[in-house]
Design brief:
The protein is mostly helical and about 240 residues long. It contains eleven helices and no strands. Keywords: DNA-binding, Transcription, Transcription regulation.
């Protein structure tokens, strides 16, 4: 009597094995703080030996962590890439949907990454995180039609990026409440409000806002926000 055939072991290429180990490590780092993930855990999850992990990452866990972080950063940067078509706030809505989905999938690791304080944190890991922030700001400025902004507009956009990070961390702390769609809508409104306030004293931002409004529709995020805000500020008419 013959036994059932078992699948033949397939030796992975160097690149395939590296991608596999990075994928496993990224999944582990996504749900545990870096200091809680040992090479033994990575090896067991990947179904390989510890020496094999060292073969691909001779710098040990620190090198593996930085490589996994680089992989996550590349994925996160892609969240902000959006074709320049349609109203800007609708593009931003799609960007934030992807971003919040990433946060949701990498919750614990995302928190450890942005809060810092990990024993795995180095100047290199900090530089990777800062690179994502700069890339995100550059993408937002492109959608505003201002790829080379002055200091006020750039500061405003970077302030908004920081607020998005902070809101994401609070969202995780609060058990992902409100739901992602509601949070995304609030973050879009937040950017519009910051743009409006900055435009009041900065001609360059005012130009960006005028161009944005020309592309928006009455039933889009800006029109909806305007209709909601007007009753709130109506009692302040005596201040004008």
């Amino acid at each position: 009597m013959t036994s059932a055939a078992t699948p033949a072991y397939r030796r992975l290429s160097v690149e395939e094995r590296r991608r596999q180990l990075l994928g496993v490590a990224l999944s582990l780092f996504a749900h545990q703080a870096p200091e809680e993930v040992s090479l033994d855990v990575v090896a067991e999850a990947a179904g390989v030996s510890r020496p094999l992990v060292y073969r691909y990452f001779p710098g040990g866990k620190q090198e593996l962590y930085e490589a996994a972080l680089r992989s996550a950063a590349d994925e996160l940067e892609l969240c902000f890439a959006e074709p320049p078509a349609g109203p800007p706030t609708e593009r931003l809505t799609r960007v934030l949907d992807r971003y919040l989905a990433f946060v949701d999938q990498h919750d614990a690791g995302f928190s450890a990454l942005l809060r810092g304080g990990s024993v795995a944190e180095t100047s290199r890991t900090t530089a990777i995180v800062d690179e994502v922030r700069r890339a995100a700001a550059d993408q937002i400025l492109l959608h505003l039609g201002m790829p080379s902004p002055g200091p006020r507009l750039r500061m405003m956009v970077r302030t908004w990026i920081a607020a998005v990070e902070a809101a994401s961390l609070i969202w995780l702390d609060e058990g992902k409440r409100p739901d992602a769609g509601e949070l995304r809508g609030w973050l879009v409104d937040h950017l519009v409000a910051l743009l409006t306030a900055t435009a009041a004293t900065d001609p360059e931002t005012a130009t960006a806002v005028a161009a944005l409004l020309a592309q928006e529709s009455a039933d889009g995020p800006v029109g909806t926000l305007a209709r909601r805000v007007l009753p709130v500020v109506a009692d302040g008419a005596h201040l004008l």
